[in-house]
Amino acid sequence: MEKLLVKKTGAALGAFVENIDLTVPLDEEVFSSLHDALCENEVLFFRDQNLSHENHKKLALLFGELQTHPAYPTVEGYPEITILENDRDNPSKIEEWHTDMTFKKLPPLGSILVGKIIPKNGGDTMFSSLSVAYDDLSREWKDKLKGMNAVHSFEFGFKESLEEEGGRERLAGALLENPPILHPVIKEHPFTGRKIIYVNKLFTSHIEGDDEGTILNFLFDHIHQEKYQYRFSWQNNSIAFWDNRSVLHKPVNDYWPQLRRMERITIEVDS
User: Which listed residue (100, 152, 194, 206) is catalytic?
Assistant: First the structure.
């Protein structure tokens, strides 16, 4: 195999990876290079990777154990592969910037998302760097946020699904297993040591002691700035692999009534 080629997007985050075939087993050197590239660039993009479900699973297993998701359908025989399929009759309910599953005590390391059916127009995904956003904070804000904790909640994040007819019954188990939880407002990446603003509009209900929501609203305005973002345009068999520990993302739901089908595996964090 040729040497891995990592081409930065030129934005605050993201790189395209070339000279790699993700349908074949990766040796230790290539895996190490991929891991380092993910930590450095926060999200990696691949084109023309015709992965089978087994390929997808084996690639994800190189990075850790795999999660299942309580709120989405999965591929038959592959409970770890979540199906994200939307069209006119089944619109996406996710509109907000978010970091996946921060309602868990140990949120996932990252996700590998494969584009299976891509609309002719629209359907991009936005990514934003929480580490660059932290670097841009003033010294006063960095000092102020030190030691603060925020509440992250499954119930808060899935309120639309819970309000649907039968929603609370369908998600009763997930609600029981995922009570609200505290995370530090400022976290540190376990490999790079970079500090991260760890709040997101989907799952973070409030910051302790911030009764008026002034601090949280400031942080939302700050981390959503365009200068921290990269917009990825999908093609069939494209892949986005993002570091969930330091990245926000959101879909651009502008493709109705076209069909968009994605398949995602989410990887557990070690500790």
Answer: 100
Which residues are within 8 A (CB) of 263 and not within 5 positions of it... i.e. 6 or more apart? 53, 56, 75, 81, 82, 83, 84, 113, 114, 116
DSSP codes joined into one string, 63-122: TS-B---TTS-EETTEEEEEEEEEBTTB-----S-B-TTTTSSS--SEEEEEEEE--SS-
- The token pair that represents 18 in the structure block: 């070339």
CA 172 remoteness from chain centre: 24
Domain spans of the chain? 5-267
Determine whether 261 is exposed, middle or buried from the number of CB atoms within 10 Å of its CB (0-12, 13-18, 19+): middle
Helix (H, G, I), strand (E, B) or coil at 1: coil
pLDDT digits (tens, 9 = 90+) for 127-153: 999 999 999 999 999 999 999 999 999
* Residue 230 DSSP class: E
Biggest alpha carbon–alpha carbon distance for the chain: 56
pLDDT tens for residues 53-109?
999 999 999 999 998 876 678 999 999 999 999 887 787 777 789 999 999 999 999
Find, among 68, 80, 57, the residue nearest to 177 by Cα. Answer: 68
Q: Is 139 a catalytic residue?
A: no
In the residue annotation, 100 being an active-site residue is answered as yes
Helix then strand then coil, % of the chain, to nearest 5: 25, 30, 45
May I ask the CATH architecture of the domain 5-267? 4-Layer Sandwich (3.60)
Return the CA Rg of the chain. Answer: 18
Query: Which listed residue (56, 98, 183, 260) is catalytic?
Result: 98
